[in-house]
User: Which sequence fits this backbone?
């Protein structure tokens, strides 16, 4: 069963089943969701501080900001739209050709890109990007970008990344 959270939602500490958030004002701090957490497309920003999700966090909204701090997602975080990342998160999977902006002071350990045309930008830090699709552009300084076999058009800053190879943004080619 799914629970829908709108502006006036008062949620228990633990939500059993999936939770669909439909309003910016919903507070999730300290909540545990035993299922998937879905941030709906009407939501422009959300704070996921101290949220534990046993399933996936599906981001269909969040273009103005998604704040991660001590956020746990048992089955991963999946971006289906443009998002702006604040705080710190281990890993994000990009499932649609989205723009992921990593804000200054934010960090993402790794980003797996499974969608053509995705862009990873911003002043924050991204450890690694694995490009499993064509025409992925990464401009976050210091990010190691690896292109999967048989993909093309992958860029690490101004450097092309050949299929099966890796380059680092903002450093000289090795």
Assistant:
């Amino acid at each position: 069963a799914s629970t829908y959270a709108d502006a006036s939602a008062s949620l228990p500490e633990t939500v059993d089943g999936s939770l669909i958030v439909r309003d910016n004002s919903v507070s999730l701090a300290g909540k545990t969701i035993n299922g998937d957490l879905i941030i709906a497309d009407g939501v422009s920003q959300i704070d996921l501080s101290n949220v534990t999700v046993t399933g996936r966090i599906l981001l269909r909204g969040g273009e103005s900001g998604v704040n991660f701090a001590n956020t746990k997602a048992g089955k991963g975080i999946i971006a289906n739209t443009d998002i702006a990342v604040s705080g710190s998160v281990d890993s994000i999977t990009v499932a649609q050709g989205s723009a992921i902006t990593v804000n200054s002071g934010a960090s993402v350990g790794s980003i797996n890109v499974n969608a053509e045309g995705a862009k990873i930008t911003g002043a924050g830090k991204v450890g690694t990007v694995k490009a499993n699709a064509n025409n992925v552009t990464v401009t976050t300084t210091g990010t190691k970008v690896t292109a999967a076999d048989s993909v093309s058009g992958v860029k690490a800053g101004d450097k092309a990344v050949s299929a099966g190879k890796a380059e680092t943004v903002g450093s000289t080619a090795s």
